[in-house]
Amino acid sequence: MSIVKNNGKRRAFPATPVTDLGDFENNHLYIKRDDLIPYSFGGNKARKGLLFFEEIDAGDFDTVVTYGSTRSNHCRVVANLAAERGLGCILISPKEEEDGDAPTFNSIYTSICGAKRIQVPVSEVHDTIEKTLADLRSEGKKPYFIPGGGHGNIGTRAYVNCYEEIRAQERELGVSFDYLFFASGTGTTQAGLVAGKLLHRDDILIVGISIARKNPRGRDVVTASVREYLPDEDPAVIDDNVVFDDHYTLGSYGTAGEAEKALIRKVMIQYGIPLDSTYTGKAFYGMQQYLKEHAVAGKNVLFLHTGGAPLFFDDLLAAGGRGDEK
Ligand SMILES: *Cc1c(COP(=O)(O)O)cnc(C)c1O
Known about the structure:
Elements: E1 18-24, E2 27-33, H1 44-58, E3 63-67, H2 73-85, E4 88-94, H3 105-112, E5 116-120, H4 125-138, E6 143-146, H5 153-173, E7 179-184, H6 188-200, E8 205-210, H7 217-229, H8 235-241, E9 243-245, H9 258-271, H10 280-293, E10 300-305, H11 309-319
Parallel strand pairs: 2-10, 3-4, 3-6, 4-5, 7-8, 7-10, 8-9
Antiparallel strand pairs: 1-2
The structure holds pyridoxal-5'-phosphate.
């Protein structure tokens, strides 16, 4: 593995590995390990967060404000990047109905980084963000706001970069991927991948497996993000390329079914790869169902692992060593 030099504060990292998992549901499965991005347990929030902080480093800011739940991978990475620089970090969090204040590995991690959490009912999140930014400014501070999940053109660009990596890896491995599956939440990861595909006029089929949102909203948010990133692209072409599949949400955000849990255990044992029940486990399950239901066979399929290791450990702890998750 080559050494990737830091350019000042900028933290570069090598292309994340693509490994061959062999036969899977009548297809050939590969996995790209964005969970192995070497910063703060990696994941798509690390890929996005590192780009947001390039902008923060280039400007004049002393406090970072963002949004996310106590389980948020995004909040962990942002709190870590802010602490490293000695910047203040404020996390606006929705107050959840049950277990809202129960610590998670991600929330403990953000506290250790010194981030301050402000928890409010979901309906007050927007106003709380505005008020927090206004208060900081009136105290003479210079806050930078990162949208929840690293949404926006910077986050999209992070996944255009990932798409470029995938293309280079196809050439290195001598394989052409027919399908790309991953967990789609705010849709920024998907928007970047789709934008990358459109920039190259490739014909890989990109399927975002929704982990919570239903259509049309889920798909519309992805489409809007691609349009914002590629303002000159034909909107009809963008629409045709955004496949946001909401059939495998298994309830809502954070809920998991028995079949998903069994698959997570199987992937851990068979491949030594950790999946969590909120994001990557759901997406892997959705991919398996999709391949069966659409009778896809003989194709090269790439699963993009988007991270979430601390959530994997939350699941393990909830299982309490009894071999069955909560
Ligand atoms: C946030 C997250 C996602 C969803 O990414 P979006 O860009 O919001 O769609 C997927 N997987 C993991 C592990 C995440 O933390």
